[in-house]
Predict the structure of ATP-sensitive inward rectifier potassium channel 10.
Amino acid sequence: MSERPPHPASPPAQTVKRPKVGNVRGEFQMGTSRIKRVGVNRWYWGDIYHWMLTLSWPRFFLLIGVLYFITNLGFALAFFAVPGSISNARPGYFPDCVFFSIETLATVGYGYMNPGSTYGHIVASTEILLGMVEVAAVTGLLFARFSRPTSRIMFSDVAVVTPFNGVPTLMLRAGNERANLILEASVRASLIRRETTLEGQIFTRFYDLELERKNSGIFALTWTIMHRIDENSPLFGKTQQDLHDEGATLAVAMSGTDDTLNDFVHARQTYAAEHIFFGHHFADIMSDKQEGDVRILDYSKFHDIYPDGSSGGSMPGAALAHPG
């Protein structure tokens, strides 16, 4: 989809950074709004696998380290509580119990220290069994985390509304940051806003936006996602202030098959009203300059926007939808 380059006399490009919001357990991010779930069970043991997959890598390794430390410390205390449980261990020297616990958990068995009594054998056998279970569980989690298909689909920090072929059009960008292909890619966009019913109840409505192109057989570089704002569009006649007053959020989801992983990948993005710029267009990132036979695609301008001369942040509706 071709994009209009900025006029030579255009002011410097605007780069608007979306606020970075960290994930919080029990909260869902939608635009700039956080929705917190209450009245549900805070913890369910059946979700522990899902929970450990959603942890960040630093927290995951911290959890494994804490589990490893607690396990060894607990069994070391069990050995230390009964003198003579470990042969060749220095009497009353707790570090020997800790190191023997580590060797037992890892089933290393250097041979210098060994269980010295029936009690010691029982504790060591229990630790070996628990160690095998822990190693199997952590190995499975590591494999699942590494093998889980992920995408590097990036979205523009903002969306814009600008005339396209005489019709006001909502536009946003998507790009594939990897040097591979996403096959049978598809995209959906929805407008989410609050409405008041005739009974006076506030109701959240989802409106699917009709896109110029919903599917692409091959998604390799960038994709300009466009929605024509005509009489059938929920954005028809709206201003940025209208969207703000309605608590509107633009939600975009993209999915496809990664040709390297041969697996399904997806990505999503949301835009609050303040991230939708009326009367602006994106900078052209496809350069006419070539390096040999190669054209340049400049991702450093991916989020840049320019004012296109329209009158502020409003959408006159029918006047622009059907220009005279």
User: Anything to note?
Assistant: The chain has two domains: 45-147, 151-321. Residues 151-321 form a domain with the Immunoglobulin-like fold (CATH 2.60.40.1400). The longest helix spans residues 118-147. Confidence is low (pLDDT under 50) at residues 1-10, 21-25, 310-324.
